[in-house]
Each structure stands twice: as C-alpha cells, then as structure tokens.
Design goal:
With 282 residues, the chain is an alpha/beta fold. It has eight helices and nine strands. The N and C termini lie far apart (40 Å).
Length: 282
C-alpha cells in the first residue's frame, strides 16, 4: 500500500510542473473526473505533461482517468486541468490521493474546481443530473492530514464551509445563464470499490446525503488545510442501490458521463470565466 507523502516529493513534483507550465500561471485548477475529460478540448494555447514525467506523482489505474496535467486558457482564464486522480480503493493512503492538491499549494494555485461521478440518493435526482456540492460527509473514516503537519498547512483546518460560497454562487449563475439544470446537495464519500448496499443507501439517506461517491473528500480536506478555495460538481451517473431496482456497473457510469459531457463542460467553462469577471478569485 502506498504510504504518506513526503514534503520533498511535493517540492520535486511542483518544480517539474512549474518548469512545464513555463509562462502559464493558473488561476484555478480543475480536477477532471468522470465526464469531464473532454473539457481540455476547449483549452486554448494548450499544452500537457504526463504524470509519469512528474516525480512522485501517483498514477491512476481506473478507466477514464488519463493521467495528464493539461494547461492553457479556458474562457480567457489560465487554468490547469488534472486528468485523472487516484483513489483510496486502489490501495493508496488518503495523503497520496491528495498529493496533487499539495502540489497545487506549492505552486500557489488559489482555487480548485473538482468534479466526480456519483450515485443519486435523493429521490428526485436522476441519472444525468449535475449536482453542486453544498457539503460532504466523510465516511471513508480516513484523513489525508494524519501525520506530521506539512508545509503551509494548518493542523486543525476549519471545515464549516468546505465549498466556497462565492464560487458556488458563480456556478449557480453560470448554470442559469446556460439554462443548465443544476441540483445542489450533500455528497457522501465512501471507500469503495464496491457500490453500496440498499441498506447502506437507506443509512445515507437518514444521514442527509443526496449523492454518494468514492473520491473528492480527501482532496477537499487537504485543500482547506492549505487555504485553497474549493467548489465541486458531481455528475450523477446512476441511481444508488435500492433507489433503482437495476444492478449497478461501471459501464453505466461511463455512458452517462459521456451523455452529459457537453453540458458539464459548458458549465465549467462559463463558471471559470465568472470566477474572474465577478471577482470571486480576488
């Protein structure tokens, strides 16, 4: 199992990525989860570097996670797209899943837009819906901050508002402008890799979760410890177990992600533009 992240590993990856970025100074990083990999096709002045060329960077193994850092202009804003993440269920410790966030902190990137695929728990949500995260519940029962305090991080980060209110408002306005339906709710992060049982979904409903997935939470915890502002949107790719009588499989996740990809990409692009024009990143 992969271990904790050493500060020198973060510095090495940050130095290599900074060299690759050259004159590009990203205002926002975008985690390109399931359904958002095609967003980089909208980048102008686009360039990329494989994770394999960045020392210490954990390599993703899950289908749909390319393993590249792509950078350029999106909606007139300099951005860094991270195509592929690693998950705890692949055998990584939470600190390794959040490795790239610590690299962003070393680079001085002020904000992070995360995306993910999730199962819909709320009875009115449907596959293909996009859900803005208002909050999350960490049911992975692990923290990426366990161990010595890393450079630039606070020991006890405040999590009363993990998803930035100004950035969330900008995403809502972007959705209204584009007439893209946007749900809002609470994301439950579980370890995986199994999908949840119907009994577990009933438990999550009782706890107040609206969607469930297997990522995002370690990254947001780390970002908040570093002072990086976060906003996140889930692509609801399936109904959770017990909400639908149909069995779940990863092919459905990928199929739904691809179906709503254009809508998702347009929302992110417009949101990024609004972050800057409205002063949300000031």
């Amino acid at each position: 199992m992969s271990g904790q992240t050493a500060p020198e590993d973060v510095r090495g990856a940050a130095d290599a990525l900074r060299k690759a970025l050259g004159a590009c100074h990203p205002r926002i990083a975008i985690t390109l989860g399931s359904g958002l990999g095609g967003l980089t096709g909208r980048f102008e002045e686009r360039d990329e570097v494989p994770y394999s060329e960045l020392p210490g960077w954990p390599l993703p193994t899950v289908e749909g996670h390319a393993g590249q850092a792509i950078f350029g202009q999106l909606g007139g804003v300099e951005v860094l797209g991270l195509s592929g993440r690693v998950h705890l269920y692949e055998g990584h410790q939470p600190a390794r899943a959040a490795f790239y966030v610590r690299v962003l902190g070393a680079l001085g990137v002020p904000a992070l837009f995360l995306s993910n695929a999730a199962g819909a728990i709320h009875r009115t949500f449907q596959p293909g819906d996009l859900m803005l995260l208002a909050d999350h519940i960490n049911l992975m029962f692990r923290s990426p901050l366990v161990g010595p305090v890393q450079p630039g991080e606070t020991r006890f980060p405040d999590m009363s508002s993990p998803y930035d209110s100004a950035l969330r408002s900008a995403v809502k306005e972007a959705a209204r402008e584009l007439q893209v339906p946007l749900r809002e709710g609470v994301y439950a992060g579980l370890l995986g890799p199994t999908y949840e049982t119907p009994a577990e979904i009933r438990m999550l409903q009782t706890l107040g979760a609206d969607a469930v997935g297997m990522s995002t939470v370690p990254e947001v915890i780390t970002a908040r410890a570093l002072g990086i502002r976060c906003v996140a949107v889930s692509c609801l790719t399936n109904l959770a177990a017990g909400v639908s009588p149909q069995p779940l499989d990863h092919a459905e996740v990928l199929e739904t992600s691809q179906r709503v990809a254009d809508e998702f990409e347009r929302l992110v692009e417009r949101s990024v533009t609004r972050f800057v024009t409205e002063g949300s990143l000031a």
